[in-house]
Amino acid sequence: MKTKSATKSQSHRGRSMMAKTLHPFVALALIASMLPEPMAAQQGANVTLIQNGTILTATKGTMQKGSILIRDGKIAEVGANVKAPAGATVIDATGMYVTPGLIDCHSHIAAEGNINEGSIAVSSMVAIADVLDPDDIDIYRELAGGTTTSNVLHGSANPIGGLNQVIKHRWGKDAKGLIFEGAPPGIKFALGENPKRSNFTPQPGQQRRYPNTRMGVMDVIRQAFIDAREYKKTWDSYNKRVAAGEKNVIPPRRDLKLEPLVEILEGKRYVHSHGYRSDELRQLLLLAEEFGFRVRTLQHVLEGYKIAKEMAKHGVGGSTFSDWWSYKNEAYDAIPYNAAIMTKYGVVVSINSDSAEEARHLNQEAAKTMKYGGMSETEALKMVTINPAIQLGIDKRVGSIEVGKDADLVIWDKHPLSIYAVAQKSLIDGTVYFDRKKDIEHRAEVEKEKKALMDKEKSAAPQRQSPPGKAPGTEGAPQRERRRPPVTNDGGAR
Amino acid sequence: MKQRSVRRVWREAWSAMVAALLMMALAVGPISIAPAWGQAKGVEPPYFAIKGAKIVTVSGGVIENGTVVVANGLITAVGADAKIPPEAWVIDGKGLTVYPGLIDAFTDVGLPAAPAAPAGGAPGAGAPVVQQAAAQQRLSQGPEDRPGTTPWRNAADELQPGERRVEQWRNAGFTTVLSAPKTGIFPGQGAVIDLAGERPGEMVVKTPATLHITLQQPGGFAGFPGSLFGVIAYIKQIFLDAAQARTADEIYSANPKGIERPDYDRATAVINAALRANRPVFFPATTSAQILRALNLNEQLKVNMVLYHVQNAYEPTAASAIAAKKVPVLVSLKWPEKETGGDPEADELLRTLRFRANAPSTPAALEKAGVKFAFYSDGITNPKDILKNAKKSIDAGLKADSALRAFTLGAAEILGVADRLGSIETGKIANLVVTTGDIFNDRTQVKYVFVDGRRFDVKEQAPPAPAGVPGAAPARMAGRWSLTVNTPDGAQPVTADLAQAADGTLSGSITTAFGNSTVSKGSVTGNQFTFTFVLDVGQGPSDWVVSGTIEGNTMKGTVSGIGQVFDFTGTRAGPGSSAAEEVGR
Predict the structure, then answer these.
(1) B275 and B303 Cβ atoms separated by less than 8 Å
(2) What average pLDDT does the segment B566-585 reach?
(3) Is the Cβ–Cβ distance between A485 and A152 less than 8 Å?
(4) Sheet harboring B174-179: ordered strands across?
């Protein structure tokens, strides 16, 4: 579990290894936060050629000096001798690297308000799609780190949480424009410390919510599916009576809480379950088998290496962290070899962020599996491209550089599995949504407009005195130190 | 408008007043007072004519030198040469401008300051406080508990004609408001009311006029819903439940034999009645994302939606999306301001800066996109700021005519009362504002306000009491004060034992003939102060607001509560109790 801090840009684990590489990202993101318009200057150009780059396709090997032709947002051709048709926009990638857009299988960005409906143990009626926030600057910041698709999940306060939404980082579009059209629907489940509210201290006047134990968590999930079966039976019986021509039948109540659970039972909705310990993860798989469905992904799954064989048998994906552990009671048995071991047992594994900061360098997170567990370059890259695409059921569309797929691409100045690589351009559906050069050029304009607006405001209002006790300039400075954010009353459940 | 003779209105008003006085004397004891305007005005004839004035009809252009005739509460003639009946009281309108009475399209003016919102399923107003508190403590476990849902509350049933803002708003030129309860996800229904009358029933123009939805989260982590998506899910669910109840009801009432009886649910019953009447449903949205979200949600709800709190429609996507759905909009005139008390050097997002700079251009953008809109005060406390803030929209490109329309006919159309209000036309309710000039000019003064044909003289406003110099240390108020509150039935002694914190916050206790109370919401700025206490003077516990000025060891000001206002004076009798003084340090 990780905690989305108040600023959304800090991670709480207190590590410092990223501090140096982070620095330019922080600066970039701060500037980007003031960007008025999406960097989508080439929108509308329906033919683009990216030429002369090293192409890491993720599924079809690596091509030196290759080109990619994009037509109407799709990859039309990939090869050494692809020529630009007349009128095409040409992006020269000489000396650069091209990868599929990175995919984050566990994100909490771009949602307005609390991402936990923590008041009740089963909150399957709430939906990320209802609160998408296209103005969340994290969409753009992550784009600047090469992430083009994210699985936006409800938090982990509840055994059964809310409905997820897979999005593309189409910065500048409205909420509907973010939605990854056609992505299979899913839902968040959670096991362990968070749903049993271990870190949650009730405020005066609040009550402790059931469940308080791991047994209780399983009970809540099982009971919910029993209710869902009952609910389905009620509707089936109603539909049968109506189909038989019976008149004057009062329809049952539609229940937004149980409808998604029926969809799970019918195999129409993916379960993405947060969990750490192998015992309870295994229990969930058995419970799912009891009710006749498959869990789609286990999220975090830090003890996945202990049950990799069982996971492969069930067909569940593992979406884990690269090398985080011991930040909470249930994370003590984690090892950095987790992703590699699960992969070796045949589990489809992705490395996720669970953090708006981490999602700005998923490439580096993936690279760590080469150090811990000896994954190949391709295997490592797959962990943040085609594998999460498979887990989310969108691998026909994204996750690799193949003809016919969406032109979601990232152009890097160095090999993307190097810590020195910086994303230069990020494309979605063939449109450039992030262009590092233009971003930098744009910063002066932004500063100018800001200054003009601030000056106008100052001249309109009488000058206020600086509040006492604060040294000038200390408040506006970005906080770079990595520290634990204050404990919030949601128990930090993400 | 009621088709009654004004004489009858007066007779009724008089007897109601006498009855009210008697009742108050019985119930309240020494505190009772005659309604303010009844005292202030003599009996006037039921006919008026304003002659030789500039008449801005809104619906039919401007008459530079015209006459409006008012009889029995209605406009009976308007024109350059409208005939003046011999019995009319003629007002020389030379140099004056007559506008339709202004409408504040969404307020809680006329409602008690802190209405006790009964929890879902709990008894209505008047229930013992203890019972209400117990009901509120039961945490909502899901949509079935109907959290924050009291659509049956109706502003018309809770009106207090003497509520202090009724007169304040009227003096600023507002003759009509939509008043609605504000607490909860479904706080209740609104009523269009005219701002004059002794009895609530007289004030009501249309009720119920509107159904209200908010995105308030009553629960937090303590009860459902505790999140924005929780509230939205709840709204969707209750509309599904309402649809189901409708179907069940139709099937059952057509053929009750052999069918299991559907449950009665007060919440869905009221919502269904509102939907059947195609009543405007108010829904909040500020930013473009929120506006699109609301419009998107309405694809499912399919209600006669009115968006309120819109301030961001200068972003073209928002205005055009609203226009495409033909949804009317209420623009909040409480423009965004830089938060006070923050670090003035703190870096702010360009988006935030743009919002503050461009919000007042929202009405012009809406007009350009062809969106029907009206203005509302949205918590502005001084009604004079309402027009002042609207002027900012004119400065930002809105035509003055359109701004006026947004306060008159435009608002009346959105609220469903354009057939009786909003313009100067024969047959409409005689709600008029007579000014010394252009209503958006801040030097213009309101001379008369006519509400339902009754004339109110607006006296030259006394210059505001010397405000505390910003930044100056608050006057010292700690101590034991002997106050004398002047009621029509004589002076009432009250003792206030006050403590004062360094920042001016007041606390302490109050001793009165009706019992004791504690001070809340107390503050001192310069030599001005205000505080509140709760006291039951025989009509249930209500808020009493004390405000005034302090000079050395004396103070004076007003005490207001249960729709009444009394003057008081006071002197410092001693240093106060030790407990209070301790807080003061």
Answers:
(1) yes
(2) 60
(3) no
(4) B102-107, B174-179, B189-194, B204-212, B281-284, B305-310, B329-332, B373-376
Amino acid (1-letter code) at residue A385: T
Sheet holding A349-351, edge to edge: A160-163, A186-190, A270-275, A297-300, A317-320, A349-351
Residues B208, B274 contacting (CB under 8 angstroms): yes
pTM summary value: 0.80
- Residue B422 to residue A153: CA distance in whole angstroms: 49
Nearest chain B residue to A254 by CA: give it: B240
Residues 282-311 of A with CB under 8 A from B: none
Nearest Cα to Cα of residue B565 among B1, B11, B39: B39
Q: What is the pLDDT of residue B513?
A: 79
pLDDT at res. B461:
57
* Residue A448 sits at the chain B interface (C-beta within 8 Å): no
Contact B573, B480 (CB under 8 A): yes
The type of residue at A251 is P
Residues 6+ apart with CB under 8 A from A488: A3, A6
* The pairing of beta strand B62-71 with beta strand B74-79: antiparallel
Whole-angstrom CA distances from B574 to B481, B496, B520, B553 are: 7, 11, 21, 10
User: What does the pLDDT read at residue B219?
Assistant: 55
Q: Find how far residue B121's CA is from the centre of its chain.
A: 26
Which residues are CB-contacts of B384 (< 8 A; sequence separation ≥ 6)? Answer: B172
C-alpha to C-alpha distance for B531 and B520, rounded to whole angstroms: 6
Residues of chain B in contact with residue A461, where contact means CB-CB under 8 angstroms, are 338
pLDDT score recorded for residue B539: 65
Give A329's contacts (C-beta < 8 A, 6+ positions apart). A193, A198
What is the spatial distance between Cα A343 and Cα A336, in angstroms, rounded to a whole number?
A: 13
d(CA B457, CA B445): 11
- Residue A244 makes CB contacts below 8 A (sequence gap 6+) with none
Give me the amino acid identity at B219: G
Q: Which of residues 92-111 of A touch B (CB under 8 A)?
A: 111
Exposure on the CB side of residue B485, measured as CA atoms within 13 A: 26
**A248 within 8 A of B251, measured Cβ to Cβ:** yes
Contacts of B262 in chain A (CB under 8 A): 250
Largest CA distance in chain A: 78
pLDDT per residue as tens digits for the range A365-409: 999 999 999 999 999 999 999 999 999 999 999 999 999 999 999
ipTM for the predicted complex: 0.87
Query: pLDDT tens digits, residue range B457-503?
Result: 998 654 444 444 444 566 788 888 888 887 766 778 888 888 887 77
In 3D, which of A411, A353, A351, A410 has the Cα closest to residue A380? A351
- Please tell me the least confidently modeled range out of A268-277, B131-140, B151-160: B131-140
Distance CA B476, CA B551 (A): 10
d(CA B263, CA A252): 12
Partner B contacted by A35 (CB < 8 A): yes
**Are B292 and A176 inside 8 Å of each other by CB?**
yes
| Beta carbons of B385 and B354 less than 8 angstroms apart | no
Interface mutation vs chain A, best among B137, B141, B221, B315, most A CBs within 10 Å: B221
